[in-house]
Specification:
- The chain is of the alpha/beta class and 384 residues long.
- The chain folds into 2 domains: 4-137, Enolase-like, domain 1 (2-Layer Sandwich); 140-370, Enolase-like C-terminal domain (TIM Barrel, Alpha-Beta Barrel).
- It is 41% helix and 21% strand.
- It has helices spanning 68-84, 92-102, 104-110, 113-134, 139-143, 162-171, 185-198, 215-226, 243-252, 266-274, 290-303, 316-328, 345-348, 372-380, and strands spanning 13-33, 36-50, 55-60, 88-89, 149-157, 176-180, 204-208, 232-234, 256-259, 280-281, 307-308, 336-340, 359-361.
- Strands 5, 6, 7, 8, 9, 10, 11, 12 and 13 form a 9-stranded mixed β-sheet that branches. Strands 3-2-1-4 form a 4-stranded antiparallel β-sheet.
- Helix 6 packs parallel to helix 7 (185-198).
Length: 384
Amino acid sequence: MLNPRHKNLDLSINITHMDVVIKKISIDTPVQTSFGTMTERPAIFVRIRDDQGTRGYGEIWCNFPACGASHRANLFNTEIVPRALGKKFKSPAEAFDQISDATHILAIQTGEFGPIAQCISGLDIALWDLVAKRHNMPLNKLLNDTSGLINVYASGINPQGVGDTIAELQDVGHSRFKLKIGFGRDTDVKNLQAAKDTLLDGQELMVDVNQAWNIESALIELPAILQFNPRWIEEPLRKDAPINDWLAFKKACTTKVAGGENFATTLEFENAINDQWMDILQPDTCKWGGITKCYEIARYANQAGKIYCPHSLGGGIALAASAHLLAASGPHVSGILEVDNNKNPLREDVFPISPIAGQISLSDLPGLGVDTDVLDDYFNKPDD
């Protein structure tokens, strides 16, 4: 899975130190979705060190409920650390596979598939960050010899003050916007009209239903949404809706269908592609798969003629990992990077970005290019 020019590099890691920290930020404006409201922003950061003294940083998904952050941090310490600390792996991918296999029965026995996968993802991101730093190159260049220039879009737009929010985002360099819907037709149409009225020539709109519809309500609501010509409709149905429901929605939908942030196996992505109902693949790097598996999904999407657009609604490492994966996904990257528009110092201070005409350019800093001084300060001053 490496850039062919770097296929002979030593990717082995001997982990000599591991720790994890929880940080939580209160927010003035809650983040609203069809399934609930976020009133604070938590993040779990992972830090590892190898026998050469190189450090790597990762992030474990824990967006909601916020109380789940403590559980995941404890799970990392009790179940992942003993399976990784003091061990030597030939590569981050080998570590991912071995630890996933070693915890599989535990996940079955406890029903903790999601939290365990998220802990492994956080470690995997840290391992790839470490390896890229050791070889003094940005992660995207280690994976693939492609440009660091990528397109971005602003997400997390709440169902109040939509026009004003988009105008503010235009002022800071955004040109693509994703609006949350699924709050009822009147609210959705009013907000979509406000968004459309605010867009400038050439700017784009996407919508995210957050699984709020069933197939019956989806087919009723769809015509009203399609009149606004969104680039895609994201998660219109529940992830576990019957395949016939997804096929019926795809047949009725005249724009692209997006999803995948809640998929937790490669097979789910393969089935969605092979069954021809998903156009935009959106794995969440911190939620499942880390760099190892999400890079495979990105390449598979490109080969299948689909589009890889990583999902990200976490802290700065989540955004950085997604950015590097998107940049590495192919020589002609058609996907766009999700950038949460809601205020979150755990993202902005760790991986600050400044879009210009809807694009960002990754730095030449080694690894993920995140601010390790900020992260180390978090580890020195944990919240929990």
